[in-house]
Amino acid sequence: MKLYYSPNACSLAPHIVLRELGFAFELIKVDLDQHLTEFNEDFYQFNQKGQVPLLQLDDGSLLTEGAVISQFLVDQSLRKDLLAEINTAGRYEVLSWMNFIASEIHKAYSPFFNESYSEKSKNVYSRTLNKHYAWVDQQLNGQNYLTGTNFTIADIYIFVVTRWADFIGLDLAHFSHLASFMNRISERQTVQDAIAAEAA
Ligand SMILES: N[C@@H](CCC(=O)N[C@@H](CS)C(=O)NCC(=O)O)C(=O)O
To answer: Are residues 184 and 194 in the same domain?
Structure first.
């Protein structure tokens, strides 16, 4: 398997999932501005959306959309703790989080990485993020992970996008349960290995 990624981008989530599962994979770095892979190939020939993450299977088939790639990967494994089996309530609880993170949190960060947005528009997105994180912080009150006692792919995904708060100067320190959660996830060996591999 090959994972096309950009350092610290949302592709870090399926990258961590690959390490949690112990799968063999190759990382291919993409320069998103130049649309080039580290081998000087046009990234658009692999993904016309021009976005990471992109997963290429050994048979050459391609899968996009990080939240779906993470689900796909766990379904290829025996690790049902990361995402419960089909037709169980636990699975849909995790998928509900995945959808919330993708549609409400992940995309609310995008304007901060796009120079065409004004400061005024960015302030609107800051307020949106604060509102969502206030709710997330409440959910984490008294529990280690988003869905309770179990670490899942939703914890990985929200960890990856919430790291961006530091990059854009969004202060989330007042959300103490969220802060503890971020520390807890950052202590995992797979998370540290993935971050180090992307920095190499
Ligand atoms: N809907 C996609 C969005 C992926 C996405 O936003 N990727 C960003 C990096 S975090 C990217 O590739 N941006 C470059 C671009 O959109 O041109 C997903 O969830 O996988």
So the answer is: no
